[in-house]
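Recap quiz, item 2
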Amino acid sequence: AQSVAQPEDQVNVAEGNPLTVKCTYSVSGNPYLFWYVQYPNRGLQFLLKYITGDNLVKGSYGFEAEFNKSQTSFHLKKPSALVSDSALYFCAVRDNDGGFKTIFGAGTRLFVKA
Amino acid sequence: ETGVTQSPTHLIKTRGQQVTLRCSSQSGHNTVSWYQQALGQGPQFIFQYYREEENGRGNFPPRFSGLQFPNYSSELNVNALELDDSALYLCASSFRDTSNSPLHFGNGTRLTVT
């Protein structure tokens, strides 16, 4: 069964510094990987996805993610963090056995300090 | 482009009661997925509807049921409510025919069971 793991409950970073939010996955076959962000009292918003092709994927709000097949990782990155990036981030994998369901990690809270 | 809308935004029910939550899909989307997000956790997949039929189900008991209508709107019904059903219920729509289509979420319904 497909799964994702987010090893950090919280990531703290100073504004202007680079940030990384970690994600590892377990899938059979080719992975479809996603990152979503959730602000308080809101639904999740799509940030970016990896389907195939370049290992570095660019998404919304200056975020990017690096796919590493050998390490089964899909880490979210941003070169320069903003206070407004503080939110809950979820890594997700699309079930590719024909069911099309998306499975989410437990989430990582990002706190950017001014 | 109309986004995903959910109603009501908040709901308080008593243990043993039944509840119906509603979701209107984003225009052009033909698939609806429902998720349960308990406090401090990632979204847990309940089920998905495509062409008005259930098309995949997570680890939830039969008292969780749903419907999808011809206009792609959807309902989530929960019978015999339990205290542990208290959570944020998220609806997400997507376009089924391309497996890399991201999910578009509503802002959720916060259900409290007392």
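Chain B touches chain A at residues 4, 31, 33, 35, 41-45, 48, 50, 55-56, 58, 90, 92, 96, 99-100, 102-108 (CB under 8 Å).
The CA atoms of residues 47 and 83 of chain B lie 21 Å apart.
End of item.
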